[in-house]
Amino acid sequence: MIDVVEIQSILPHRYPFLLVDRILEVEPGRRIVAIKNVTANEEFFQGHFPGKPVMPGVLIVEAMAQAGGVLMLSEVEDREKKLVYFTGIDEARFRRPVVPGDQLRLEAEVLKRKANICRLACRALVDGVLVAEAIVLSSMVDR
User: To the nearest whole number, what is the mean pLDDT of the chain?
Assistant: First the structure.
């Protein structure tokens, strides 16, 4: 298990944009399972939507992409000199709203990797129920 302190040693993201709280499983070069605890004090809930808070779908996709970034960067020795850019998204689907109190289980599996480009099948689940899925494309670049 990888905690948020170690995640911050892998990803450059910081509050309020770090959307991965814990890594549960990693199979280097293959797949990752991560957690995002969705709390009522998330800044985006102030405006999305007052009185009916819903996590924006774009941030769910970003959380899935960040989990994929941890997977890509965890294998790189000089990762402090690298960034993973989110370069594309295909087949995104949102199945149900994510609300305060939910715990997102983020799963990403490598579909194809060529040099510094990776195509990942990603899923987000709450209590075992699929809430979002997408194919995420990422590229690792020098900082």
Answer: 96
